User: Which sequence fits this backbone?
């Protein structure tokens, strides 16, 4: 399974414990102490609850690795990064349909953040 980062596709090199969460998890019920990585499942590319969960975890102070897993498509990469994800885990079939170049096209996700421009932060 390729891991997508701002640098492109990579093999999964993480060896620590992973806290797997469903996209409908209430972040207020979680203890985030000593959690190195949280992996949020996306059951469908049309289900945006994982983006909200990532944002809420970052607002609660989580500073570890956030990984989106499942049905995230390259067009959603910039949104995933802005929501707080560090990386996206995709399966081999999606990587074949949407090669690394499709994801890299969206890797400059900060350059086109109109929300920050409107706030005067870009």
Assistant:
């Amino acid at each position: 399974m390729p891991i997508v980062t701002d640098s492109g596709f990579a093999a999964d090199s993480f060896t620590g414990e992973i806290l797997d969460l469903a996209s409908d998890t209430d972040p207020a019920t979680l203890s985030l102490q000593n959690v190195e990585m949280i992996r949020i499942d996306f059951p469908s590319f049309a289900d945006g609850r994982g983006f909200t969960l990532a944002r809420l975890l970052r607002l609660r102070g989580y500073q570890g690795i956030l990984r989106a897993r499942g049905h995230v498509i390259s067009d959603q990469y910039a949104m995933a990064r802005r929501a707080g994800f560090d990386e996206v885990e995709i399966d081999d079939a999606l990587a074949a349909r949407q090669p690394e170049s499709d994801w890299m096209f969206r890797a400059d996700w900060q350059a086109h953040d109109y929300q920050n421009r409107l706030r005067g932060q870009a």
Q: What stands out?
A: The longest helix spans residues 49-59.
